[in-house]
Design brief:
alpha+beta; 37% helix
């Protein structure tokens, strides 16, 4: 289900290893590694970090970790995992085995199909001059006396399947996987959605016990359609540690039907007016998504009908039944298919809190109202709308219910019990709901965001932004307005984790002519001249030193 790729050759020049190995945290890790592993000769591993070549693994080639799980109706989830690593020196690896395992355990070593074979401590190892396999799995029954032996049999089957695999079954025959793996930088993970759905189908069999036979029958009927829809979907995730930033990419692959569906969904334009409600000085977080409601509905309809196979008649009738209750034109023009949420610092807000206080004279609890002033986030939620008349009709219902009061043209105050005041505003074709009275009602302007945010909104179908720097400033302001909201220790820890971190942003879109949908995450670091791997090791060392000092 998951295939993980590690490229150690890409990491060799990304850190100052001679400096890193002198960090007290790394020295302590190296000293304790062997003992933590229960090694027969713990001292063998003391210099492992400084000299990883002693493992005998070829660090100039990719290593792979495969992870699969199945549902056993008697024992629950069964996990199977496999490590594949190229060897540079088999004798060095055998020296590792001697240091790791006791002599009586090594007596179980044998030869199987041209490989050294060793089953020890619940694992199975197979290696020759070129490659190492390590197999791990969960026992079918942890409590059965023979569970370890049964587990070893399972791992031997995994070994046989690996060395005897038909070349046609190999992942290397999947072109999109090969295209993706060629782009992996430091490490990556590949997900097969069909395998994931098959696991879900297995777990759905349990519905017969939980919800009854009818629910189980429904799931069995619908599952072929689900497997058909997910059969050509894959995701490839990639992580790269770079100078001054961490970059992660996820590529979602599908056949042309899915690419067409995404194009239908994404057939919309961003409403850049939302930038007026982001604060270039105080915005801690925002997310903006835009899509076409009509394109989404019609695209899903086309895809479901095409993938339904024998169930196509059911799917067609289902959509026709839904359309009896839906005025498609009015529905798709009510809200235009975008949504944004932003947190723009905070302000002191007053509201009336109600509580019950015991009155000794009346021997009863009486309700007492008191005015409370609290530092609360300045948030705003917004969406584009099409038909203003429909929006006003909805607001009139809220007014009749007594929750909304009109303040100015297109501006309303929302009152909820024991809550601060919120505000509802219509700005052109933008419907806004939030807490910042100065911005929404009084028209106070925010400082403009950097121009790159306009490009984000125009190019992305979804944008997510987070500023650790502004988050820490907000926490400091909360504590200044309401002392001791956060303890000194909590503030210190938050600042430690935010140290050196700058803006984080996530962007989802389809690159032109690409056979995939791309999601990019970039986390900027303060030091633009240093690789993120060095920054990571320095952070770990500082964290270790702080714990040694008792903070």
């Amino acid at each position: 289900m998951y295939t993980f790729v590690l490229r150690p050759q890409n990491l060799s020049n990304k850190a100052n290893w001679s400096e890193v190995q002198e960090y007290p945290a790394i020295k302590e890790f190296s000293r304790g590694f062997g003992s933590a592993m229960g090694a027969n000769e713990p001292d063998f591993f003391k210099d492992l970090f400084q000299n990883p070549q002693k493992l005998g693994i070829n660090l100039e080639q990719n290593s792979y970790f495969l992870f699969n799980s199945d549902i056993n109706m008697d024992y629950g989830t069964e996990v199977k995992a496999q490590l594949i690593a190229p060897l540079a020196d088999a004798q060095k690896f055998e020296a590792v085995c001697k240091a790791l395992f006791k002599e009586e355990e090594l007596k179980n070593k044998s030869q199987k199909d041209g490989y050294n074979w060793l089953q020890v401590q619940g694992f199975s190892l197979a290696w020759n001059a070129k490659v190492l396999f390590i197999f791990a799995s969960t026992p079918e029954n942890f409590f059965a006396p023979e569970s370890q032996e049964m587990n070893y049999m399972k791992q031997f089957d995994m070994f046989q399947q690996t060395i005897n695999m038909d070349s046609q079954e190999s992942l290397n025959n999947l072109k999109v996987y090969n295209d993706w793996e060629a782009t992996v930088r430091d490490m990556g993970a590949w997900l097969n959605y069909e395998r994931f759905m098959r696991l879900y189908a297995q777990s759905a069999e349990g519905l017969n016990r939980e919800l009854g036979r009818e629910a189980a029958m429904f799931m069995r009927e619908i599952m072929p359609l689900m497997l058909s829809m997910y059969g050509d979907l894959y995701a490839g995730m990639d992580l790269s540690l770079e100078k001054g930033k961490i970059v992660a990419e996820s590529k979602f692959y599908g056949n042309q039907d899915y690419i067409n569906l995404y194009s239908d969904i994404a057939n919309s334009k961003a409403n850049t007016k939302v930038l007026n409600y982001l604060d270039g000085q105080n915005t801690v977080f925002y997310t903006y998504t835009h899509f076409s409601p009509e394109g989404t509905y019609e695209g899903l309809k086309k895809l479901a009908q095409k993938k339904a196979g024998p169930q196509s008649d059911i799917v067609e009738r289902l959509f026709k039944f839904m359309e009896i209750f839906i005025d498609e034109k009015a529905s798709f023009n009510f809200l235009k298919g975008d949504l944004f949420i932003a947190f723009n610092g905070l302000s002191m807000q007053k509201y009336v809190d109600k509580d019950y206080v015991y009155n000794e004279e009346s021997d009863n609890y009486e309700m007492v109202e008191r005015e409370v002033e609290e530092p609360l986030p300045n948030f705003v939620v917004g969406a584009s709308y099409g038909n203003k008349k429909d929006i006003l009709n909805l607001i009139e219902i809220v007014e009749i219910l007594g929750f909304a009061t009109k303040i100015k043209s297109n501006k309303y105050e929302i009152s909820l019990p024991q809550s601060p005041k919120f505000y509802l505003v219509l700005d052109g074709n933008l419907l806004l709901f939030g807490s910042d009275k100065d911005r929404l009602i009084n028209g106070k302007k925010y400082k403009k965001m950097d121009s790159k945010h306009k490009a984000y909104l125009k190019n992305d179908n979804q944008t997510i932004f987070f500023s650790p720097e502004n988050a820490i400033a907000l926490v400091d302001r909360v504590n200044s307005l309401k002392p001791n909201t956060f303890s000194e220790r909590e503030l210190k820890e938050m600042k430690r984790f935010a140290k050196g971190l700058k803006d984080m942003s996530v962007h989802t879109y389809k690159p032109k002519n690409a056979p995939y949908i791309l999601q990019e995450m970039t986390w900027e670091l303060e030091n633009k001249e240093e690789n993120a791997l060095n920054t990571f090791f320095r952070f770990v060392n500082e964290l270790y030193l702080s714990t040694q000092k008792g903070m």
